[in-house]
């Protein structure tokens, strides 16, 4: 499975593409950080991110995109910019029919390090080890984008099983409701 991991942000947006193999084997194919100037207008910054992401989608042809789910109550303007960048990425994927999955930072940290409260240094060290990289990916946004892709590769089978179970449960609820309605 080819996964594009995205650590969204207006100033720095981490992009990565990995390919999963058998078991937990993952190979990094590309990683980069899109930077936009803080003094540029919001629409132009989003356009810059969009153009880079669309180029990556057209170049790498990922099957799925894993994006960090944004949530924070500390800095509303940062959260808004990050959410807007994530929206641009989700839109570009939707235009191409590519599935998008959002993962929380704690999900990503737990998948990569085994600790949902791990620090950036620990995540970077584990990403380096998991992918067998010669050097640590920098800046942290690059490591985070790789961690998101790794997280999705490892969680995808469970996500698929959960979707199947939810679909089956919905069918069973419908059948039960129909039986109850017929009996009354």
Describe this structure in words.
- With 184 residues, the chain is an alpha/beta fold.
- It has one domain: 2-Layer Sandwich (Nucleotidyltransferase, domain 5).
- Helix content is 57%, strand content 19%.
- Helix 2 links the parallel strand 4 and strand 5.
- It starts with a strand and ends with a helix.
- The mean pLDDT is 92.
E-strand count: 5
CATH H level, superfamily name: Ribonuclease H-like superfamily/Ribonuclease H
Cα gyration radius (Å): 19 Å
Given helix and strand content, the structural type is: alpha/beta
CATH architecture: 2-Layer Sandwich
- What share of residues is helical? 55-70%
Q: Trace the largest sheet across and list its strands.
A: 3-2-1-4-5
Number of helices: 5
Question: What is the N-to-C order of secondary-structure elements (H for helix, E for strand)?
Answer: EEEHEHEHHH
How far apart lie the N and C ends?
A: 49 Å
Beta content: 15-25%
**What is the fold named in CATH at topology level?**
Nucleotidyltransferase, domain 5
Map the helices and strands.
Elements: E1 2-7, E2 12-20, E3 26-35, H1 42-60, E4 64-68, H2 76-96, E5 99-103, H3 105-113, H4 120-131, H5 140-183
Parallel strand pairs: 1-4, 4-5
Antiparallel strand pairs: 1-2, 2-3
Helix pairs in contact: 1-2, 3-5, 4-5
């Amino acid at each position: 499975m080819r996964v594009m991991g995205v650590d969204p942000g207006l100033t720095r947006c981490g992009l990565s593409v990995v390919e999963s193999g058998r078991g937990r084997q993952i190979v990094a194919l590309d990683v980069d950080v899109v930077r936009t100037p803080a003094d540029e207008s919001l629409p132009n910054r989003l356009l810059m991110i969009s153009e880079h992401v669309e180029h990556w989608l057209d170049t790498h042809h990922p099957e799925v995109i894993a994006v960090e789910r944004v949530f924070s109550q500390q800095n509303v303007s940062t959260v808004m910019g990050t959410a807007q960048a994530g929206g641009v990425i989700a839109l570009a994927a939707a235009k191409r029919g590519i599935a998008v999955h959002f993962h929380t930072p704690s999900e990503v940290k737990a998948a990569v390090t085994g600790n949902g409260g791990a620090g950036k240094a620990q995540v970077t060290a584990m990403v380096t080890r998991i992918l067998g990289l010669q050097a640590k990916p920098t800046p942290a946004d690059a490591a985070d984008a790789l961690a998101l892709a790794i997280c999705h590769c490892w969680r995808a089978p469970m996500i698929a099983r959960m979707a199947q179970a939810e679909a089956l449960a919905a069918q069973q609820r419908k059948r039960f409701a129909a039986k109850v309605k017929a009996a009354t």
